[in-house]
Design goal:
It is a single chain. Helix content is about 40%, strand content about 15%. Helix 2 runs antiparallel to helix 3 (about 95-110). By secondary structure, the chain is an alpha+beta fold.
């Protein structure tokens, strides 16, 4: 599988924007993807020359981060083990294990822009 997003290691950086800069971003004249939670802006991704879709893929990955964290944490917190050529996910039922994996796959699909 190939990914379109920028390969990691990413980091966050602090900066300030003036009201004029913020208004310019919202003017529709600049190619951006905005990641929102409700009406709150989580991230702004510049898509200036996004011919290959990399910047848009970055926005999808950022938007999916909470789901990836939640579902990944739920999976690894179960003390999975390798047994007889299989990865065993301790659960109350086979259906519960399938649900956990399905939710994690859905989070990955969202990160890849397929959901």
């Amino acid at each position: 599988m190939t990914t379109k997003h920028t390969p990691g290691r990413w980091r966050s950086s602090s900066m300030t924007m003036s009201k004029a800069d913020w208004a310019a971003l919202h003017s529709g004249k600049h190619p951006i993807e905005v990641v929102l939670r409700g009406h709150d802006v989580i991230a702004v991704v510049w898509c200036g020359d996004d011919r290959d879709g990399e910047e848009k893929a970055n926005a999808h990955l950022i938007a999916a981060a909470p789901d990836l964290h939640e579902k990944g944490s739920a999976l690894v917190s179960r003390d999975c083990r390798y047994e007889g050529g299989n990865i065993v996910i301790p659960c109350g039922s086979h259906a519960e294990a399938l649900r956990i994996m399905s939710e994690f796959r859905a989070a990955i699909s969202k990160a890849e822009g397929r959901a």
